[in-house]
């Protein structure tokens, strides 16, 4: 197991990465904004190099995320997909979950209510119901929800 902890100079954001093949879990803490996004991108891309099948981003301790933070998540997902790695988001707090919903990114990412569910969820093509992850051709495994607010 590889475990690292890093914080930016302002300590507004930090992450803890744990690599346990075949997956890597990265717990993000604090604010993901224009000030912290560049360092976060570098660290997440580094964590991606240690992943084999699955990268789970635990968002349970993220208190704020702006458009630059969303851009980092999208960039990491695109690079992961190109390498055959699945990215899942776990346990976003209500403000972050709302941002993902309003921007439609809750359909581009597999968003799970808990870290445990993100780790045990089945991949597309496996039985046991629908998946919210994209298939290899980029088509979502679930239909778009109605415009209800997340719980």
UniProtKB/TrEMBL annotation:
A Pfam family: STAS
Q: Where is the composition biased (Basic residues)?
A: 142-151
Tell me the InterPro entries matching this sequence: Anti-sigma_ant (IPR003658), STAS_dom (IPR002645), STAS_dom_sf (IPR036513)
**GO MF assignments:** anti-sigma factor antagonist activity
Question: Residue ranges of region Disordered?
Answer: 120-151
Residues in STAS domain copies? 25-122
Q: Which family does it belong to?
A: Belongs to the anti-sigma-factor antagonist family.
| Stated name of the protein | Anti-sigma factor antagonist
The organism of origin for this protein: Planomonospora parontospora
- Source organism phylogeny: Bacteria, Bacillati, Actinomycetota, Actinomycetes, Streptosporangiales
């Amino acid at each position: 197991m590889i475990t690292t902890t890093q914080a930016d100079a302002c300590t507004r954001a930090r992450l803890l990465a744990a690599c346990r093949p075949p997956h890597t879990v990265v717990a993000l803490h604090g604010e993901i904004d224009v000030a912290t996004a560049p360092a976060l991108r570098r660290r997440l891309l580094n964590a991606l190099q240690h992943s084999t099948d699955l990268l789970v981003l635990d968002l349970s301790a993220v208190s704020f995320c702006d458009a630059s933070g969303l851009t980092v998540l999208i960039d990491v997902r695109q690079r992961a997909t190109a390498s055959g790695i699945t990215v899942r988001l776990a346990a976003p707090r209500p403000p972050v979950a709302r941002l993902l919903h309003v921007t439609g990114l809750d359909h581009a990412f597999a968003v799970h209510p808990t870290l445990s569910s993100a780790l045990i969820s089945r991949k597309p093509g496996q039985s046991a119901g629908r998946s919210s992850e994209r298939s290899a051709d980029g088509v979502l495994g679930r239909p778009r929800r109605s415009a209800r607010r997340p719980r």
